[in-house]
Amino acid sequence: MMKKTLKHKLKDKSFCLIIDEATDPLSRPLVALLAVTTTDTWVLELDEIQEMTATNIELFIRKSLEYYEIPFKKITVLVSDGAPVCCKLGKTLQSVSILRHKLSTKFKAQKKSQIKAQNSN
Length: 121
What we know:
Layout: H1 3-10, E1 15-23, E2 29-36, E3 41-48, H2 54-67, E4 75-80, H3 83-120
Parallel strand pairs: 1-4
Antiparallel strand pairs: 1-2, 2-3
Helix pairs in contact: 2-3
């Protein structure tokens, strides 16, 4: 499937993101990134990576998500067999979630203040 078509299909979906690392027959490190919904599975990326570190894999994933224009809030579950990758991405996703919650709370409070001010007039 062409990347542009896949980009369009993923636009409104929430999904599980699966990351798997491996080496090819020439011992080159590879990373596979899959998106899984209740009905479909797509290979987003399968590419060689310089060095198999949590930081490099996080960068690989971020670039893929940026290309496909996928916000973190669309990822319902993150699956990886590499503990360092899970920990690093978990912290990233957690900080995004905390920020989103803080902003949401702030905007709700502002909205309540505006409504209260309008009702007072």
